[in-house]
Amino acid sequence: MDIFHDIFSLQLSLHGLEELGEPPSTLPTVGTNLTDLKLKKKKMTLRELGGCMGPIWPSYFKDCSSVIFMVDSANIAQISASCIQLLSVLSAEHLHNASVLILFNKRDMPCTMSLVEIKSLFRMDDIIASATQPITTQELSARSGQGLQEVLSWLESIIVK
């Protein structure tokens, strides 16, 4: 289950179209997925890029106005690699003015660190202080839906800009 499926599902749910059934099991994104959303009467295309595609991410940055960067906060072994990928994204020339939402996913898992601990490992305060972009951080459980309404609100706020 990917964040875009969840956002789309939440959007349908908010509009009374809740007959989606059980969400599929969570799988990492392999490749790329495109999802079109209509928020505040404006169309937005979300392109999800799997983490394994990190080396070619820059080829998608040219027309990008915002970034949602998802961190698997239950996978402690990948935290440092995620931080390095995030720093690479933030330093990309085409993204210097992009709005950035960093999502710490899987907050519902029993083995996750506290948000304070994970932000400390990421050195979020230093990253935010040195970034050229406006950065928002958010806890999320894509599986349970916790935090998805806040993600939609963030998306709606960047459409207005």
Automatic annotation (TrEMBL):
GTP binds at residues 51, 105-108. SMART domains: ARF (SM00177). It comes from Champsocephalus esox. It comes from the Eukaryota. The keyword Lyase does not apply. GO terms for molecular function: GTP binding; GTPase activity; metal ion binding. Keywords: GTP-binding, Magnesium, Metal-binding, Nucleotide-binding. Mg(2+) binds at residue 29. InterPro entries: P-loop_NTPase, Small_GTPase_ARF/SAR. This is ADP-ribosylation factor-like 16. The lineage of its organism: Eukaryota, Metazoa, Chordata, Craniata, Vertebrata.
